[in-house]
Automatic annotation (TrEMBL):
UniProt-listed InterPro entries: FG-GAP, Integrin_alpha_N, TPR-like_helical_dom_sf
Domain of life from the UniProt record: Bacteria
Keyword Signal annotated: yes
Parts of the chain that traverse the membrane: 61-81
Protein name per its UniProtKB record: Uncharacterized protein
Organism from which the protein derives: Symmachiella macrocystis
Length: 1271
């Protein structure tokens, strides 16, 4: 935002020329004569909107400038000198010596350089910002903006270009000439020194600063961090004193607390006892979440104090270390960390000193900028093409949606005692009532959404763009809430609303003031939050539209009932929260999502406390800074609360604006003119107001935009009723629903997106995957092009974007409600897009060098999932070790070694305790196989199987008699699919693969070899299936054979199965047969695809020679993501190593990963000291070649032996969003019980301090600059 009100315009706007994006008045003569005005970096579609103010008079303008200047100077002085350094985003104090000889043209050019440089800095383009900011430093050496912002740009550019270090040091020297004693100068100077490799000088600089500013928290905390990371033990010991001083200055800061605890424990200082006593009240608010993560924080502290009392110092320090590690992973600690150690961009100066503006008014936009191509004329008027809906009774509420799946807008109308549904109206066919149902008295509001995932495909595909599910209805008010199912009669094709009986507790909930639908528990079914006389209740959809109470939060005088709710991932931590507004203070609160069905009612912070009481709210990003803003409506009018999101869980209010002082009953967000900027609509009984958004957080009232405005307004909605690309206005009154056609909005381009949580595999028909609710309610859509960022939360069947005059869109990113990201690249403008969710598997990948390129070999750790649930409280077993075959033709020497790439390309963490490579030399006419089986250790015991004489079955078919033998004869990538009906991802109909092995009479040993892959369910799907009595749970393969009567009998209840991508398993079936009939069935309802089947009989083991190869090096680094290739048929996805996408693709996980660099010592022994890698990471492994080549007539294959685990970040996985708690080899299961814990031996503590130091950058995924609002 500009630091001054930009409605104060230049005195001669007729002489001004406009550049795009930056608000910059440029005298036309100067441009024509000199041609040297610095270019404004932007696209035309990102132009700042113009404004108009008919009340502006020259004298009034001057007075207003002076008044604003005086006020903001006072505020700026107070913020800069009185606030902690963490919040210094203020303007500098007056500095003498500004060049008084500057001409107006010269000032204008410098002002443009400032706007350009600061804008580039805030948009992460650090290298590009250096030039204009350096020019400011040279031209205005006594103004701190140029030197300080130059230092920041150079410092941040050093992260990717160390060559800027010298320039950064020079810029620091210039800054010290202007502001030698400022805290910001000391902090930035120390950061530059540390980043350029001179940590000792950085420590000295901060020590000097603490002497002159001993009360500054940031100085002590930054100093402590540098001292803690020093390689010198005596310097590291000094860190404790620095953190102790910081804790004295900020005794409620969790980031300072955990750093102090860790430092005291590491240096074994007795003062840790007092720190632990101080910690107990601080950690009480986060203790419940820590308990869910497997650590009882309060018990750890109590145990530490007891250990200190009896002199068990080793136990004391171990408990302190555990407490510190748990605290530092919590979002509150990360929030406090940004307060103690702000991001460098928090120190950016936004404007020059006041002297720069002496006798000169900086340029401001004219009201109606003819150069702004997004500005179009729009009017709303009744149209014959959109018939009105007169009614005999007053409308209480209504919703516009496609109720009957004909791709036209319908009206679901709540009247005093009933619901009526009207099918889409046109000039040729007015609104037609298609069903109605009575409701109890006192119902006041409607919600519509698909609550039962009943997929329907219309019989006329030429009119239907997508598969779809119909909308069910929730109605609520003083009589409680009622759930209605939308039922289609298969015979008559007529629809009806059928009330679904709920529990007695549900029925007793009355006087409901607010409600919202979203997927609370991430099981792909929408749940319900109600605010009523019983409190705020969270109701879980258990399938069949039956709801079960999960949690109740009480209400009282201090915490009254909210009047409005909106579901949104408020703090960008990949779970949906609820923003609430009420008529009592605090007017705006949050129902914070702690996952697993747990919420807490919290204040948004003291800075939000001044918001006026409200009866309605909406959530938007009014200024495009990647942080959600709130607009509220109430008796005091319409208010906008702007925010900045600094990190996951850290949201700050940065401005409150009174948009209108007219009392309002409701407010909604739309883009009526399709300019890509959010507009507002507010109303009360007497009328409505439409506000045009400027894209900067400002809104202008539009006058005379609607023809014959109505009174007695009950409700307003917007929808593209006539499907012409712009949003029409629908108004409910006491006489019916009036529809106003948007006339002109589609002069700008637009895009409608309909999300469908379907998946499509090979040639199969799309079907619901079951991992996200069908319409993606609660998902985030982010439209990006150039510097423009337009986010929206999916709240219905269709999400509408305005695009402005330029149709090009670079991409739309979907962050699905379960956290999975997906991109729509270069979508076509002026179109309806149906986008299906692409569902991915899990586990790290292995790539090998085949002599020409790295190729995908297999996936790893499939038998070792952490926190995977089969049901709510039932966890999958985890087997840490595996032995995987690597074909010799896929692994060839490269530069004198065998090179492997282990990558993590999905949303998970992988924990590798050991990786070894074994060369298997064997005769060329022998194939070797390992037992790549998911199953217990007793069944999956490692063994090298040698095969000389494989025997194919004589017949193979599925349960419908389809012949599958040709698909199973050889390992060739052509997979057999032995089922037809798919229920959910990973769950299919009961089916079997029947094999006739021929005559095996007399065979004493029969080995069955199966090559295939599995498309699995996941934690969320398993939980959902376990709750639904109508659906089966996944059943692992079992083996059946015929008895003497020909009846099929189960002889092996569990055979094990190939895990993940294509693998081969060996099953000893020697004792499986009951007769000389050697037929068998492999029965399951899991989603398996088979490539090859064969058996061996009485085959003696062939000679092999094994050599364990030496690990020469292991380098951990960031790589990115391979391109995914989706093959036709039924094979698994393939990954193209040579085609790379570098951008961070998945939301960050909490906790500490292994730092980049050499990790060899972590992989050579099974010792619980692991290389922990996250999304986008790669380990390059080099193994020494064996001393001898294989003998003549032999060949070489390999076995990769791993000890490790994999944790999926699925929101229902136990601790899925956290690296901790760490697994260890002796654990009995995961999560492990309270009496087990990761062994904190001295060696393991040293390992954690040395290696586990890296966190995933929140901004890598969200691309939001901490604490800064775009300009």
């Amino acid at each position: 935002m500009l630091p001054f009100n930009h409605r104060v315009c230049c005195q001669n706007p007729s002489n001004l020329q406009w550049n795009s994006k930056r608000i910059a008045c440029v005298p036309a003569a100067d441009v024509q004569e000199s041609g040297n005005v610095p270019p404004i970096v932007s696209n035309a579609e990102n132009s700042m909107p113009t404004q108009n103010d008919d009340s502006s008079h020259p004298l009034r303008t001057v007075l207003l400038c002076g008044l604003v200047l005086v006020i903001l100077l006072g505020i700026g002085w107070w913020v800069f000198f009185k606030q902690p350094a963490a919040l210094q985003i203020a303007q500098p104090p007056a500095v003498p010596g500004v060049n008084e000889a500057l001409t107006d043209a010269g000032r204008l050019e410098l002002w443009q350089d400032k706007e350009r440089g600061v804008g580039l800095l805030e948009n992460h383009k650090y290298a590009s910002a250096i030039e204009p900011l350096s020019q400011l430093s040279a031209a205005l050496p006594n103004d701190p903006l140029g030197p300080r912002d130059s230092v920041i740009a150079l410092l941040l550019a050093m992260e990717t270009n160390p060559a800027t270090a010298d320039a950064a040091r020079a810029a620091v020297a210039e800054l010290e000439n202007v502001q030698p004693d400022a805290v910001a100068t000391s902090i930035l100077a120390a950061k530059v020194l540390a980043q350029s490799g001179d940590a000792a000088a950085a420590i000295g600089r901060l020590q000097q600063a603490t002497q002159s500013s001993p009360q500054e928290l940031t100085l002590w905390f930054e100093l402590g961090q540098l001292q803690r990371d020093s390689p010198k033990p005596d310097v590291r010991r000094q860190a404790t004193a620095s953190f102790q001083r910081a804790f004295e200055l900020a005794p409620d800061n969790l980031a300072v607390l955990w750093n102090l605890l860790q430092s005291q424990a590491d240096s074994q200082q007795a003062d840790v006892v007092e720190t632990m006593r101080s910690a107990r009240p601080l950690v009480e608010p986060i203790a419940p979440q820590a308990t869910e993560a497997g650590v009882d924080l309060l018990r750890e502290i109590d145990d530490a104090l007891r250990a200190a009392d009896v002199g068990r110092t080793d136990d004391l320090y171990q408990h302190a270390f555990i407490v510190a590690n748990v605290i530092k992973a919590h979002p509150f600690a990360r929030r406090d960390g940004l307060r103690a150690s702000p991001h460098p961009l928090a120190y950016v100066l936004q404007d020059f000193t006041p002297e720069f503006y002496a006798n000169w008014t900086k340029p401001q936009p004219a009201m109606d900028d003819p150069g702004d191509e997004t500005r179009i004329v729009v009017n709303f008027a009744e149209s014959p093409a959109l018939p009105q809906l007169p009614l005999q009774a007053a409308v209480v509420d209504f919703v516009v949606a496609d109720f009957d799946l004909d791709e036209r807008s319908d009206l679901i109308v709540l009247l005093e005692n009933r619901i009526e549904v009207y099918a889409g109206g046109t000039q040729a066919a007015p609104w037609t009532k298609i069903c109605e149902t009575p409701v109890p008295p006192g119902m006041q509001h409607l919600l519509t959404a698909d609550l039962d995932e009943d997929v329907t495909v219309d019989a006329t595909p030429e009119t239907v763009r997508c598969h779809n599910t119909d909308l069910d209805v929730v109605v609520y008010g003083t009589s409680g809430a009622v759930i209605f199912e939308n039922v289609l009669d298969s015979t008559t094709k007529l629809r009806s609303l059928v009330s679904i009986e709920q529990t007695q507790v549900f029925a007793q909930t009355k006087n409901i003031s607010a409600a919202v639908l979203f997927d609370v528990d991430h099981d792909a079914l929408l749940d319900l939050v109600l605010a009523g006389d019983a409190g705020i209740q969270v109701w879980q959809n258990r399938s069949g539209l039956k709801f079960q109470l999960l949690q109740t939060l009480g209400v009282d005088e201090e915490t009254p009932l909210p009047q409005a709710m909106a579901a949104v991932d408020w703090d960008r931590d990949i779970d949906v929260d609820v923003i609430m507004a009420g008529e009592k203070s605090p007017a705006v609160e949050i129902l914070r999502n702690h996952r697993h069905g747990r919420f807490s009612r919290e204040s948004l912070g003291e800075e939000f406390s001044q918001v006026s009481p409200a009866v309605a709210l909406a959530v938007l990003d009014a200024d495009g800074n990647g942080s959600w803003d709130i607009v509220t409506a109430g008796t005091s009018g319409v208010t906008l609360i702007r925010t900045a999101t600094l990190d996951a869980g850290v949201v700050r209010e940065i401005g409150v604006t009174q948009i209108s002082q007219t009392a309002a009953d409701g407010v909604l967000v739309w883009d009526y003119d399709n300019d890509g900027r959010s507009d507002l609509l507010a109303w009360n009984r007497q009328g409505l107001e439409i506000f045009r958004g400027e894209g900067s957080g400002e809104f202008l009232l539009e006058e005379e935009i609607i023809e014959t405005p109505l009174t007695e307004i009950r409700q307003c909605r917007v929808d593209d009723v006539n499907a012409d690309g712009d949003l029409d206005l629908l108004i409910a009154t006491s006489q019916g629903i009036a529809i106003y056609d948007n006339q002109g909005g589609n002069q700008n381009h637009w895009l409608n997106i309909r999300l469908l949580a379907e998946q499509e595999k090979g040639g199969a028909s799309p079907d619901p995957g079951g991992r996200v609710n069908y319409h993606g309610i609660g998902s985030l859509l982010e439209l990006r092009r150039g510097d423009q960022y337009i986010p929206q939360i999916v709240s219905g069947q269709v999400t509408h974007f305005g695009l402005g005059p330029q149709p090009q869109v670079e991409r739309v990113r979907i962050v699905w409600a379960n956290g999975f990201p997906q991109n729509i690249m270069a979508p076509e403008a002026d179109a309806h897009i149906c986008d299906q969710k692409l569902l991915l598997g899990s586990c790290p990948y292995l790539y090998t060098w085949n002599g020409e390129e790295f190729v995908f070999a297999t996936d790893l750790c499939w038998a070792a999932p952490l926190g995977l649930k089969f049901a709510d409280d039932v966890y999958a077993p985890s087997r840490a070790w595996e032995y995987l075959k690597v074909d010799g033709d896929q692994l060839q020497p490269r530069d004198g070694s065998y090179q492997l790439q282990v990558t993590e390309e999905l949303w998970e963490a992988a924990y590798f305790d050991r990786i070894s490579l074994i060369a298997i030399d064997h005769p060329a006419d022998v194939d070797v196989f390992t037992n790549e089986k998911v199953g217990p250790a007793s069944m999956a015991e490692h063994k090298i199987h040698t095969v000389r004489n494989p025997r194919s079955p004589v017949a193979a078919h599925d349960k419908r008699g389809h012949d599958l033998l040709s698909d199973l004869s050889v390992i060739d990538g052509h997979f057999a699919k032995p089922f037809e009906q798919r229920i959910k991802q990973g769950l299919v109909e009961d089916h079997y693969l029947e094999l006739d092995l021929g005559d095996l009479s007399g065979a004493k040993q029969i080995m069955l070899y199966l090559t295939g892959w599995v498309y699995p369910t996941d934690t969320s799907l398993n939980i959902r299936l376990s709750r639904n009595d109508q659906l089966p749970s996944p059943q692992s393969p079992s083996l059946w054979v015929p008895d003497a009567e020909g009846t099929w009998q189960q002889t092996m209840p569990y055979t094990g199965f190939p895990g993940g991508k294509t693998k081969t398993i060996a099953i000893n079936i020697s004792d499986a047969f009951l007769t000389d009939d050697f037929r068998l069935r492999l029965a399951t309802n899991m989603e398996f695809y088979w490539d090859a089947v064969f058996v061996t009989t009485d085959e003696p083991p062939a000679e092999i020679r094994t050599t364990e190869l030496t690990l020469q090096s292991a380098d951990l680094h960031y790589r990115g993501y391979s391109e995914i290739e989706h093959p036709t048929g039924y094979g698994p996805d393939r990954y193209l190593y040579g085609r790379l996408q570098k951008d961070f693709s998945w939301p960050p996980m909490r906790g500490h990963f292994t730092r980049y660099g050499d990790v060899s010592e972590l992989l050579t022994a099974t010792d619980d000291r692991m290389a922990i890698i996250g999304s986008g990471d790669e380990m390059t492994l080099k193994f020494a070649l064996p001393p001898n080549a294989p003998p003549l007539g032999w060949k070489r294959d390999f076995v990769m032996h791993n000890v490790g685990w994999d944790k999926d970040a699925n929101l229902n996985t136990a601790f899925g969003q956290d690296v901790a708690p760490l697994p260890f080899n002796a654990m009995s299961g995961y999560p492990y019980p309270d009496d087990e814990r990761y062994p904190l031996t001295p060696a393991n503590r040293a390992y954690l301090l040395k290696y586990q130091t890296r966190v995933q950058d929140w901004n890598q995924f969200w691309r939001v600059v901490p604490g800064i609002s775009p300009r």
